[in-house]
Amino acid sequence: MNVSGRVALVTGGGQGIGKAICLKLASYGADVAVVDINMENAQRTADEIKQMGRRSMALKVDVVSAKDTEEMAEKVFKELEAIHILVNNAGITRDGLILRMKEEDWDAVLNVNLKGAFNCTKASLKFMTKMRWGRIVNVASVVGVMGNAGQANYAASKAGLIGLTKSVAREFASRNITCNAVAPGYIETAMTEGLSEQVKTELLSKIPLGRLGGSGDVAMGILFLCSNSSNYITGHVLNINGGMAM
Fold this sequence. Notes:
There is one protein chain. By secondary structure, the chain is of the alpha/beta class. The protein is 48% helix and 15% strand. It has a 7-stranded parallel beta sheet, sandwiched between helices. Helix 4 (103-131) links the parallel strand 4 and strand 5 (134-139). Helix 3 runs parallel beside helix 4. The chain is globular, with a radius of gyration of 17 Å.
């Protein structure tokens, strides 16, 4: 699953799962552009990658802005000389029951999670099509597959991301560009650390493997879909959820 000589662009790469993805791709040979709304976090990740002997750059980007994402792709191509891999990982939550959900909470989540992925994909494809090689991986979610009470906006955005994945896969297969998604289940992050023991126990009862996943589990799945080991896979959703949804 070597990705040596490839240039990867990862959104939301400053912390959590996004950071794990950046470091995993770099450890297998990729140069990585770390994109995040928080420049300090992005820079810290980029510095770690440089310490590994790989090229890296940090960019503060609002993925909701088409102008920002176009400039992002231009900068990455100019400095790192290619864009082979795009991982659309940037995402937010604004949870609430539908009857109490504010319109701005719906719009914010759909804008970042779905429109942001569209913007970054469109901006990066311009360079991938020239090279006639590309790997796009969208980070969806188990709730985009099975839904979740209190997360109508988040579930809709992730289900939409799965539809976007399959459409891009069909449009660009002839250019040797694959587009796949991963659908993580409940992963150990700062967000899940704050859950009560009762909630954690209830969650674990729904997961056949009996444990939460780690960010490394997600990163390895993404590495596989970015490598030549997955050359004949496109339009696929890889469930990384311990069996929670089958």
